Amino acid sequence: MELVSYVEALKIIKSPTRVALAVVRAKENIYNLITLEWYMRTSIEPPMFAISIGHTRYSYECLQENRFFNLVFPSDEMKNIVKYCGSHSGRDFDKFNILDINWMPGRLNKLPILDDAVANFECQITGQIKSGDHTIFVGEVKYVWANADKELAIYYPLKD
Ligand SMILES: Cc1cc2nc3c(=O)[nH]c(=O)nc-3n(C[C@H](O)[C@H](O)[C@H](O)COP(=O)(O)O)c2cc1C
């Protein structure tokens, strides 16, 4: 055991190990995607997920306006989407249209469902709490879509 830097420790514990994407609504018929490591299940009944979003993110603005998100568990074949959405802001790029995303409209508030993902959880925000420079949005899961035959994108290496 030895003292290491925070970044070194993240590499050692292989964090992030399982990343997700959230789809949010930017404007009418315009959607944004953000790569997320900070998400968790927070309730069994009703089923709930929380996502932590930085205040500088475009997605943070979007979530203040439209109180829904689709939490997406990407498949292995979506690694390029995960990478792009974690390094480009919706303020500067229309990520949803630039990336060749296969999608269909969801049931709840019609946010897109990503066809090639392992799972999509359509959530309605029921509360939020400020956590330093991020805000945790808590969402109740309303509809779930899944592709049982797809492989999860389980590891996304940190940049050096
Ligand atoms: C692997 C990975 C995990 C990330 N996890 C989060 C996260 O949990 N919360 C967050 O606010 N940003 C996270 N980010 C950063 C955002 O994805 C990134 O800043 C993105 O460009 C923001 O897009 P937006 O401005 O369109 O919202 C992560 C980035 C990467 C590469």
Question: How would you characterize this protein structure?
Answer:
- The structure is a single chain.
- The protein starts with 5 loop residues before the first helix and ends in a 14-residue tail after the last strand.
- It has one domain (6-146): Roll (Pnp Oxidase, Chain A), CATH 2.30.110.
- A hairpin with a 6-residue loop joins strand 6 and strand 7.
- The strands form two sheets. The protein has a seven-stranded antiparallel beta sheet with strand order 2-1-5-8-9-4-3.
- With 160 residues, it is an alpha+beta fold.
- It has four helices and nine strands.
- Flavin mononucleotide (FMN) binds next to strand 2, strand 4 and helix 2.
SSE series: HEEEEHEHHEEEE
Strand order across the biggest sheet? 2-1-5-8-9-4-3
Structural domains: how many: 1
SS-based class: alpha+beta
The CATH superfamily title: Electron Transport, Fmn-binding Protein, Chain A
CATH architectural name: Roll
* Strand content range: 35-45%
**So how many helices?**
4
Principal-axis shape = globular
List the helices and strands and how they pair.
Blueprint: H1 6-12, E1 20-27, E2 30-36, E3 39-43, E4 48-54, H2 58-65, E5 68-73, H3 79-85, H4 95-98, E6 103-105, E7 112-114, E8 119-131, E9 134-146
Antiparallel strand pairs: 1-2, 1-5, 3-4, 4-9, 5-8, 6-7, 8-9
Bound molecules: flavin mononucleotide (FMN).
